[in-house]
Amino acid sequence: MEFWVATNNKGKINEIRSLFAEVPEAEIHTQSEISGFTPRPEDGKTFIENARIKAKTLASVKSNTWVLGEDSGLEVEGLGGLPGIHTARYAGPNASDSENISKLLKMIGLRSAQNRKARFVCALVVKTPQGEEWTFEGELQGTITHKPQGQMGFGYDPIFLPLDETKTMAELGPSFKNQNSHRAHAIKAFLQRLKSL
Ligand code: ITT
Q1: What share of the chain in percent tops pLDDT 70?
Q2: pLDDT tens, 136-147?
Q3: 66-76 vs 2-5, strand pairing mode
Q4: Residue 7 CB less than 6 A away from ligand 1
Q5: Could you tell me if the CB of 30 is within 6 A of ligand 1?
Q6: Ligand 1 pocket: which of 96, 156, 169 to mutate (most atoms <8 Å of CB)?
Q7: Mean pLDDT of the region 105-119
Q8: What is the mean pLDDT of the chain?
């Protein structure tokens, strides 16, 4: 049973592979295996729209199989929901994780030191082998810390303290994310629907 995932992000794909461990017959592939494949620009206005763009673009070359488009990001309350759909490129087009983190900490310091509430959001658009579209969403609430801590995970994990936790997501690591992350919630909802077929 093949599942093609429309992402180039290695952190995401590692997590998606772990989440699919409960489906032993699943073979996970990514768009990077398709030579000459060019993703379309993510010019949607919402996470779901961008996830749909990713899924549709990959489904146009991978029909009659399962295709997953995943778009995710961080919404910070004191920044009016930013960086939102711009999370991956918050500090510029080729920004590294540490550059994005530095920019976010600076912006919160400037604009909203009092309100560090945030949530991670994951939108998942699945194209079924029959061409139907299924959508799923997941979120994880938390706060933004004052400095990065922890080495695990990717992206903004070192500055994200999940609600009711005393460690950042980068300190909590894969066992926590596999159960509780925004991505885990969305993928688990998909796997549940898949099992009900
Ligand atoms: P693809 O479009 O190829 O999937 P991307 O990294 O550009 O890769 P997105 O457009 O969905 O993916 O951007 C999501 C960004 O949000 C990602 O680059 C991270 O910076 C951040 N992010 C998403 N999920 C995260 C997580 O679980 N932990 C930390 N940061 C996360």
Answers
A1: 100
A2: 999 999 999 999
A3: parallel
A4: yes
A5: no
A6: 156
A7: 91
A8: 97
